[in-house]
Design a protein that fits this description.
flat; 128 residues; mainly alpha; two-stranded antiparallel sheet
Length: 128
């Protein structure tokens, strides 16, 4: 059954503003924050650690990493390390990489070829 016609055209002046949800990047903790969270985690009773982790928005593995860093290098180890960006490959690098992965073929003038007899009776020549 067809829909009934509207008496008036739709209102074209109204609109809904759509915004993209705020995206959060990787979180960075200061040394003081890491020490505070570690101290609070050490003070937790049985069963309270999960609530602390949810409240801080971190995983249990963060605590282990931070404890290892603290034991290895003290408070200097808790400082966030800057990640190095890798350099972009040039066209020459890409060509060299492609050439190194190409299979090597025997030339007709190859003197040091090795002939193998396969179970099916075919002979195959391999170049060193």
């Amino acid at each position: 059954m067809p829909k009934p016609l509207r008496a008036s055209p739709p209102d074209t002046t109204s609109f809904v503003e759509v915004r993209a949800p705020g995206t959060r990047g990787r979180r960075h903790f200061t040394v003081a924050e890491k020490q505070r969270i570690l101290k609070a985690a050490d003070a937790c009773e049985h069963g309270e650690l999960g609530a602390l982790l949810r409240k801080e928005g971190i995983y249990h593995s963060h605590l282990g990493d931070w404890r290892r860093q603290l034991a290895r290098a003290g408070t200097d180890g808790l400082q966030s390390q800057q990640r190095m960006r890798t350099s972009k490959a040039t066209n020459a690098d890409i060509q060299n990489s492609a050439e190194s992965h190409k299979p090597k073929r025997c030339s007709p003038t190859s003197q040091r070829g090795v002939v193998l007899q396969t179970p099916s009776g075919c002979a195959a020549m391999l170049c060193p």
